[in-house]
Request: fold
Amino acid sequence: MPAARHPRRRRFVVAEATVTVRVVIVDDHSIFRSGLRADLDASIEVVGEAADAVAAVEVIEATRPAVVLLDVHLPAGGGTVGTAPDAAGGEAVIRGASPVVPTTRFLALSVSDAAEDVVRVIRAGARGYITKGSSGAEVSRAVHAVADGDAVFSPRLAGFVLDAFGAAVGETAATSDELDRLSAREQEVMRLIARGYAYKEVAAELFISMKTVESHVSAVLRKLQLSSRYELTAWASERRLL
Reply:
């Protein structure tokens, strides 16, 4: 009798799921927009472009992206969007962002690393600031971080933000009872998050999981009665904990 034939086992390769982030690029140089679009990772889907603030409003409202990559020195395109003739700062980050699409986050991308540009854009509502010298991979990582709710700055630029929102002369360090609310690990996480580290960076720095970082951040915000990482940055800076 012929030997029983067994069905050949097939190998299945399951591709790792990658979250696609929808973005709009706002920059007045078409060559830069084209180059950036080509250099971004496959996980970034460019759903629209604009060359000025007025056009940006229309594109953002039509496409509702997760993140807008925004040039800092953006022309107003008619003068009806900006908060002032010299608003710059991504035309005041499209007039405060929320009137456009509340769920969209803004990531400034500029040739400038001047403190005044960084501070102006962050005050206007951007969630991060990176320079145009960044690689496509770096911009892509920053987009994912901002889409996840993190703030993204290089260490040098983060220093400008902390200085701008920092402690005034004569303010004292945090009292021990405030810090006593936090465990030693929560204090470590608090300092890194307040300095602008992304959750992934905190996890790598402290050799813990992303979920653990998220748990610590939630605990820190709850214990200090704060509502966001931006309030946490201001709180830590006022107390000279950075």
